[in-house]
Amino acid sequence: MTNAFLIVVTLASLVTLALKCAFIEGQQYFKLPQWFTDSLEFVPPAVLCALVIPGIFQGNIGLVNAFGPVVIDPKPIAACVAAITFFTTKKTIPTLIAGMASLYVVYWLQI
Amino acid sequence: MLPLLPGIVPFGLIAGFTPVSFGYTWIDSIMGSLLMFAGASQLAAYQLMDEGASLWIILMTVAAINLRYVLYSASIAPYLANANRASRLLAGYGLTDQIFAICQRDYPTHDWDLNERMAYYGGGTLVLWLLWQLCTLAGALVGQVIPVFWSLEFMIPLTFLALALNTLKTNAHRVTALTGAGVSFLGLELPYNLGLIFGGTLGMLAGVLFKRFCG
After folding, report:
1. For residues B155 and B159, what is the distance between their CA atoms, to the nearest angstrom?
2. Which of A61, A94, B62, B82 has the fewest CB atoms within 10 Å of its CB?
3. Closest CA to B15 of B51, B34, B50, B40
């Protein structure tokens, strides 16, 4: 086991549990303001989209680490293909397959 | 509940595989799933650890991704109000998108007493929890033998992308997403992953303002 990993995961799990129990356990003690609960619906799209960006535009994929860099980064193109696939199918698995397949193809075309 | 289960299989496999692909052990991966039991925030925490983000950035991101549970918790709390503390804490630990979806649908339409509501919640959670842990274990074990050039770590942003696109139900959500992504992109070079924090915060703010003035 890796101590640093476990420390981070343990603290993250406490944060997660606190949020999950916020009302189930704490309903007798406090009430959140309406404006706050109204704004919660916008948290997932804001955070998830913000989180996607570094994964697409930063860092090297395993292909680059194994076989060397290419001129055009295949990640943004693969992400676009994945997004189009999601809008077409509304399903996660085809989105992942299309994204990964296009990642391989765009890399392969450049070597 | 059963129709919701197949969807978590690939996500569980990725959640199990990801820490292993970043050089952690399969036991670390299992511990992550056992302790957190919250897929998207698990992946976010793993990705940020790999990027060398500071602890507070990781915890803030986990909190931001999991803020929706406050909403779920508020919605379900009245139905579990008279349960004992241990049951309430266990219910909190087991709260997921899927459990929320079925309880939100079925609690108001059934005249169940507390024991029946807890049994419904507990049964669904147990099935989901077992499947999630099994998928994580499978992903962690398989992850040890997958070659690095398969680049499966790229499935994390793709998974987040699918999750993000699935939330775009109104124009306010689309404005939120575009703002979050745009600010995050502009802030890519900022230290401490601040682009992510600014993107999440300003994205949410844009959504609230759009809904208030244009929605």
Report:
1. 6
2. B82
3. B40
Measured CA to CA, the distance from residue B26 to residue B30 in angstroms comes to 6
Q: Model's pTM, two decimal places?
A: 0.78
- Locus of tokens 């913000």: A50
The two structure tokens encoding residue B199 = 């993107």
Handedness of CA B58, B64, B65, B71 (dihedral sign): positive
Give phi and psi for B100, each to the nearest 5. -60, -45
d(CA A16, CA B201): 19
Q: Please answer yes or no on whether B61 and A42 come within 8 Å at the CB atom.
A: no
Q: For residues B24 and A2, give the distance between their C-alpha atoms in angstroms, rounded to a whole number.
A: 7
Listed residue (B93, B90, B100, B94) closest to B125, CA to CA: B94
Rounded to whole angstroms, the Cα distance separating B28 from B108 reads 40
Q: B185 falls in which pLDDT band (50, 70, 90)?
A: very high
Banded model confidence at residue B144, pLDDT cuts 50, 70, 90: confident
Nearby residues of B96 by Cβ (< 8 Å), 6 or more positions away: B37, B38, B125, B128
B51-102 pLDDT tens trace: 889 999 999 999 988 888 887 888 788 888 889 999 999 999 999 988 887 8
Q: Is 80 exceeded by the pLDDT of residue A101?
A: yes
Q: What whole-number distance in Å separates Cα of residue A90 and Cα of residue A20? A: 28
DSSP helix, strand, coil percent of chain A (3-state; round to 5): 75, 0, 25
